[in-house]
Write a structure and sequence with these properties.
about 140 residues, two-stranded parallel ribbon, 5 helices, 4 strands
């Protein structure tokens, strides 16, 4: 999970952080919950479907376990954001990448202050823009 504070429409490179807390870690948390509660191993494609769509055509108890694990995980995302000075009453949150599906389906947030970009290439486009800007300022040199 990469965090970047933007002030006055400009990226604040001194307030950029990486947390090892992405969708893959959520998948692992779901697997652990399924093993703990149902003593079963779940195919990754089913976990991915639930995380992307919020549901899947599986047993209701299994689905409930996945959703509960995803909600706990998503609450932890917001806790980690607050550790990096995120305050939903003072700022807006723009979510880009795979975590957007988690937040959209399982998060508790103010929909007027959190914006989720569904473009799966958005993160790469953002890094491309930063690189282009840096190259332009340095006359083409990195």
């Amino acid at each position: 999970m990469n965090l970047l504070k933007i002030s006055d429409r400009k990226p604040d490179m001194l307030n950029m952080f990486t947390e090892k807390y992405g969708v893959y870690q959520c998948t692992l948390a779901v697997r652990e919950a399924m093993m703990r509660e149902h003593h079963t191993n779940l195919d990754e494609s089913i976990i991915t479907e639930v995380l992307k769509k919020g549901t899947a055509d599986i047993d209701g108890e299994y689905l409930k376990t996945i959703i509960t694990a995803a909600k706990v995980y998503t609450a932890e995302i917001f806790r980690k954001l607050r550790e990096h000075d995120y305050n939903p009453k003072l700022m807006k949150l723009y979510v880009v990448g795979g975590g957007g599906c988690l937040i959209r389906h399982f998060g508790e947030y103010d929909k007027d202050r959190v914006f989720i970009n569904s473009d799966i290439c958005a993160t790469a486009k953002g890094y491309e823009y930063i690189a282009y800007t840096k190259l332009s300022k340095n006359g083409g040199a990195v």
